[in-house]
Amino acid sequence: MSTEESVAAHYSRGNVEQLLLGIITAAGGNPESFAPVELHGADQLHIGGALATTRVATRAGINAGSHVIDLGSGTGGVARHLAHDFGATVHGVDLTPQFVAAARSLTDRTGLSGLATFSQGSILALPFEDASFDVALMVHVGMNIQNKDKVFAEAARVLRPGGIMAVYDVMLMGGDVEQYPLPWAATSDTSFLQPPLAYSDALEQAGFEVDQEVKPLAEGIEFLETAMASSGPVGVDMAALGNLMTAFRSGILAPVEIYAHLP
Questions:
Q1: For helices 77-86 and 49-59, angle between their N-to-C axes, nearest 10 degrees
Q2: Where do the domains of the chain lie, and which CATH numbers do they carry?
């Protein structure tokens, strides 16, 4: 099994669409027609959830005129958020067929299919022409990507001159990660953690100029504390959250945002 197949298998457990629709039903909503906020961020499985998406999108300058590519779009929560709250046109690409099917279905049910679309594939080889987008986002995806150089080269190719690359990943701050599982990987075989400097170097090699780096560690710890107190996000193993919290508190890992642009 290739690394990409192993990563896809990690995220293909259970019927994620039915789990998410169950949240709507349990709250008394209509699972056939609902607003993205009714999922309570359960479709945005990254540190900080929807609030973090808003923060990253604002710093990336996303607005109603933006054409955005979401690299590793999962079940489409980030894309729907950008479409609904910012009016952006978004296309998500994800490796996991189950996630892409769920993203399309959920987006149709929220009435956002005209703004948010999805395709299944590898972000190492994007199915788009050069200079097609204004902004590229990668949210909690790089931890599963060994060849980050290739990802950023592809992002640079499909972005227009002046385009923005926004990365929000869990990154290595020092020491060795010894406790697995983590939310993105059951073992170290599919976990490719790197420090912020490695990301910045890879971005610069791809032709980007790095503008800003932010480390919202305190917010990340608070988010995990709240998540763990409420049995964690849907479908995420509690042991994995606990190991991530340990790594945050020990200073081994941290959530990091990096913003860069093409000249």
A1: 60
A2: 3-173+193-213+254-261 (3.40.50.150)
